Amino acid sequence: MNKSLKIVLLLLFMLNSGHISAQKFGYIDSEYILNKHPDYKTVQEELKKLSDQWKKEAQSLDQEIKELNTQLKAEEVLLTEEMYQKRLEEIKAKQKASQEFNSRIFGIDGMYYQKQAELLQPLQSKIYDAIERVSRRNNLAVLFDKAAGPSAIIYTDPRHDYSEFVLEELGIEDNK
After folding, report:
1. Which residues form a coiled coil (predicted)?
2. pLDDT value at residue 61
3. For residue 57, how far is the Cα from the chain centroid?
4. How far apart are CA 56 and CA 60, in angstroms?
5. Per residue in 134-146, pLDDT tens?
6. Quick check: 162 and 27 in contact, CB under 8 A?
7. In whole angstroms, what is the distance from residue 38 CA to residue 20 CA?
8. Dihedral, CA atoms, 99, 104, 106, 108, nearest 10 degrees?
9. What is the mean pLDDT of residues 69-87?
């Protein structure tokens, strides 16, 4: 009796574990999807324009500092110690303002990254919604992002790549 009970329990466990191994996994390449999306190119162009404008402003500040330094060196022998120190303080104040500008624009929480997040958010929402629909339609238990780094994905079988399905869901044709 004890032996038959073990066999029945073993059979029940094997039947029950069949559901666990039947889960489907897949992956996408979000970088590939983004690069194929026409809205992404528009976002990139707008960010480049803003970035170029801010870089010009930063270069202008740096050029002004360079000119003040050159002017100070040229007039150094003509200035009193007090006048020299005053000009040095002006230059240091300009350098500090330049650093603050660069930090405010291009720093970790700078305006550039805020604008990037603002412009990409609607696009990322569309892509996420498409990913969710593809995952549900294909009964995927888990969908990895190959582009997310650092990735734990070492090898991927192209049969499990759902990037094209997501592009199709977004209405984007692949023009290789």
Report:
1. 44-78
2. 94
3. 25
4. 6
5. 888 888 887 888 8
6. yes
7. 39
8. 110
9. 91
Kindly compute the dihedral angle of the four CA atoms of residues 58, 63, 69, 72, in this order, to the nearest 10 degrees.
Answer: -120
Place of tokens 């604008």: 115
| 3-class SS of residue 164 | helix
pTM reported for the whole predicted model? 0.67
146 within 8 A of 156, measured Cβ to Cβ? yes
Residue 73 to residue 86: CA distance in whole angstroms? 14
Please count the residues of the chain.
176
What pLDDT is attached to residue 163? 87
d(C-alpha 176, C-alpha 17), whole Å:
42
**CB neighbours of 159 closer than 8 A, spacing ≥ 6?**
none
CA separation for the pair 63, 74 (Å, rounded): 16
Nearest to 112 by CA among 120, 122, 104: 104
